Amino acid sequence: MRFEIEKKIPGALGRAGTLRTSRGDIHTPAFVPVATKASVKALTPEMVRELGAEIVLGNTYHLYLQPGDELVRDAGGIGRFMNWPGPTMTDSGGFQVFSLGVAYGKDISKITKITDPTLMIPERFDDSDAPRLAKIGADGVSFKSHLDGSIHYITPEKSIQIQHNLGADIIFAFDECTSPAEDLRYQEEALERTHRWAERSLKEHKKLLGAASVFSSLRPANSFGRDPRELKNRNSSSFSPALFGIVQGGRDENLRKKSASIIGAMGFDGFGIGGSFAKEDMSDAVRWVNEVLPEEKPRHLLGIGEPEDILSGVENGVDLFDCVAPTRNARNGTLYTCEGKINITNAEFKKDFSPVEKDCGCYVCKNYSRAYLCHLFRGKEMLAGTLASIHNLYFTIHLVKNIRQAILDDRFPDFKRDFLAEYNSK
RNA sequence: GCGUCGGUGGCAGAGUGGUCAAUUGCACUUGACUGUAAAUCAAGCGCCCUUAGGGCUACGAAGGUUCGAAUCCUUCCCGGCGCA
């Protein structure tokens, strides 16, 4: 994997570049659609590619539970398994430590609205018996499967082993995503744990890289009954995943910078910026981190993808974003437009025969009306989620592409100002 | 015509003397969703008042019994079924 920076935003941390992997190039800043279970929900990989995506992100924990990482390995890796020929990345399962742990059953997510004060009160010490599916143990995390209740203990080593089996081009260190509701003492404790886990992830990764590639040595080449040329292709590809370390530190400037400094010096190929944020804290946290991280390596802001957040992320030095928002919102009837989000199921769209967005170049806007999408949603037709996902992913991917172009053309500030003015106009 | 069972909010369908403006589902209205426990979840859904709450009108229609009726009685209207 190689990363080349082509242009920087004057006076800011942002940049445009290209991330080169053996399976293809990613032009940054880039948006990474999420394919948690080796599927971008409601879409075929061909559609995802058609929308302009250059890489997709799968999830270690979910694929480990189902169908199992060894099965994915035997299928030729996540990309081949899901018929996505380009680059892939997998998240480490660190987010599930959070979403199935402290956040389980609560109104806490990646972004917590600080307007709800009850969520900002540290409750770590009085909710110890609250139901949760993930519990942090001595050197890893025990998960209770949401699928069948079985217990699984995931360590940093285990996460990296699973990810090597999944076979993505970029993988992530196992980390602990903390809630902004946690107090400073807990943030420090969790951060030290994340740093220890980062070391162990890196060590395990190097160990596995040192061993022969899982795709050329683990099984006899003829065990598939497949076209031998396929096997030859797969075996001949010099598969060597890049490992990104993850910076945490909550909303505290010192902790964020400390984390960036420590993770930044460990020798990772790139970096993830993690954490659950209060919305108003995010751009500060990202800036603090990217001021410290080595400039020449790529940075991925984990799980962030609302337009305004992408703009501030890019400005503050982020190269890659992944987020479920475009696809999840789509399935739930919320569509992005340049004038803000709309809920296409609302009564006002029942007889609106105009496209979702007038000048949008996506397949949906060129061929269907708001009234039709409204009808599909009300009729609970599966096509609703598909068409809406196409539009939302196109919107987000193209927003990022336009941001990239604006950087290359030296007009990022104007682009940002104009976009936000229109996006927030209604 | 006789007998019988039934008529409850947009629909289906609970309730069968007070805790009923009426459980529940659907529909409808609006919100939320940021490394996917998510094609999900939440709130509202008779009318009026600014909220806590209060007032009014309602369970086919009209009378009645009762301190009190969607619930009991009478008659009428309407529907299903059976027999003529």
Structural class: alpha/beta
DSSP helical segment count: 17
End-to-end Cα distance: 43 Å
Average pLDDT, rounded to a whole number, is 91
What is the β-strand count?
Answer: 18
C-alpha-based Rg, rounded: 21 Å
What best-fitting shape do the alpha-carbon axes yield?
A: globular
Helix and strand arrangement:
Blueprint (H helix, E strand, L loop, with lengths): L1 E7 L6 E7 L2 E5 L1 E4 L11 H6 L5 E4 H6 L3 H6 L3 H5 L5 E4 L2 H6 L11 E2 L21 E3 L4 E4 L6 E4 L1 H11 L3 E3 L11 H27 L3 H4 L10 H9 L5 E6 L5 H12 L5 E4 L3 E2 L3 H11 L6 E3 L5 H9 L4 E4 L1 H7 L2 E4 L2 E4 L19 H5 L2 H9 L3 H27 L3 H12 L3
Parallel strand pairs: 4-16, 5-6, 6-11, 7-14, 11-12, 12-13, 13-15, 15-16
Antiparallel strand pairs: 1-2, 2-3, 8-9, 9-10, 17-18
This protein binds one RNA strand of 84 nucleotides through helix 5, strand 16, helix 13 and helix 16.
Q: Would you summarize the structure shown here?
A:
The chain has 426 residues and is α/β, with parallel strands linked by helices. The chain has helices at residues 45-50, 60-65, 69-74, 78-82, 94-99, 156-166, 184-210, 214-217, 228-236, 253-264, 282-292, 307-315, 325-331, 363-367, 370-378, 382-408, 412-423, and strands at 2-8, 15-21, 24-28, 30-33, 56-59, 88-91, 111-112, 134-136, 141-144, 151-154, 170-172, 242-247, 270-273, 277-278, 299-301, 320-323, 334-337, 340-343. The chain is built from 17 helices and 18 strands.
